[in-house]
């Protein structure tokens, strides 16, 4: 099960963190992986590291918020590979500020990157997959779509919308051979959360609040990604799979 030999997977935001770990896991299952990020040098280094581990890699730098350029890059990739079976829309950004002083421009930037751009690019990819009659679309949601947390108003709103979008897309694409799901990570130790895991007080709170008593690491998320990306998961659609060490399950 879960053999991805012969398939092509594109993971956005995969020069580091959860996206990199997911690309590596999909590659280890046999997929050809296309990795993405805005920094071409970081992406080239990530591609070299994956190749060193025997994974077939395409390096596709683009900014997901430049939707027209991103669509061109995806089309060029598909022109080279001849197919795109798995699309993991994982790129995401954060901005932390109190609600009452949160700049509206920042709200719009965060919602555009985490939601609007994901909607536009995902829809572009979905059209090709539906025409071929097969596809696996995955988004990265978040625990913060389910539980409140101060100072992340734009991010929470966008991720909650992603969870809703997954159910809506699954409905609309049902019968096309395309499934749509999301993983919703809890607290994962990456660049995105550096300011949190650098804070001893926050770490003490997290260790007492998460039932497993620890931060997640990117590799903790990848089994969920591989499962939802697999051909065998074809009857699973419209789901948000929470990967949080049990945090959302306890008061
Ligand atoms: P990181 O900051 O470690 O990695 C983010 C990746 O996305 C990098 O490769 C970055 O590369 C890329 N990226 C950022 N913006 C863009 C853009 N506009 N276009 C293309 N690539 C972009 O974050 P994580 O691995 O932690 O986060 C991955 C996903 O998981 C995000 O959607 C995040 O919201 C979500 N998530 C993370 C959690 C956590 O605790 N870490 C919890 C819940 C959800 P570059 O900067 O070069 O573009």
Identify the notable features of this structure and list them briefly.
binds NADPH dihydro-nicotinamide-adenine-dinucleotide phosphate; alpha/beta; 251 residues; seven-stranded parallel sheet
Shape: globular
Which parts are unreliable, with pLDDT below 50 for 5 consecutive residues or more?
Answer: none
Order of helices and strands: EHEHEHEHEHEHHHE
Task: Enumerate the strands of the largest sheet in spatial order, edge to edge or round the barrel.
Answer: 3-2-1-4-5-6-7
Count of DSSP strands: 7
| Mean pLDDT reading | 98
Structure annotation, total helices: 8
Q: How widely separated are the two ends? A: 36 Å
Rg over alpha carbons: 17 Å
Strand composition percent: 5-15%
Overview of the molecule:
The protein has 251 residues and is of the alpha/beta class. The chain is built from eight helices and seven strands, in the order E-H-E-H-E-H-E-H-E-H-E-H-H-H-E. The chain has helices at residues 17-28, 40-52, 67-81, 104-132, 153-173, 194-197, 200-209, 222-229; strands at 8-11, 32-35, 57-59, 86-89, 135-140, 178-185, 240-243. It has a seven-stranded parallel beta sheet, sandwiched between helices. Strand 4, helix 4 and strand 5 form a beta-alpha-beta unit. It is globular. The mean pLDDT is 98. NADPH dihydro-nicotinamide-adenine-dinucleotide phosphate (NDP) binds at residues 12-19, 36-39, 42, 63-65, 90-93, 113, 140, 142, 185, 187-188, 190-193.
Brief overview:
The chain is of the alpha/beta class. The chain is 45% helix and 13% strand.
SSE diagram, text form:
Blueprint: E1 8-11, H1 17-28, E2 32-35, H2 40-52, E3 57-59, H3 67-81, E4 86-89, H4 104-132, E5 135-140, H5 153-173, E6 178-185, H6 194-197, H7 200-209, H8 222-229, E7 240-243
Parallel strand pairs: 1-2, 1-4, 2-3, 4-5, 5-6, 6-7
Bound molecules: NADPH dihydro-nicotinamide-adenine-dinucleotide phosphate.
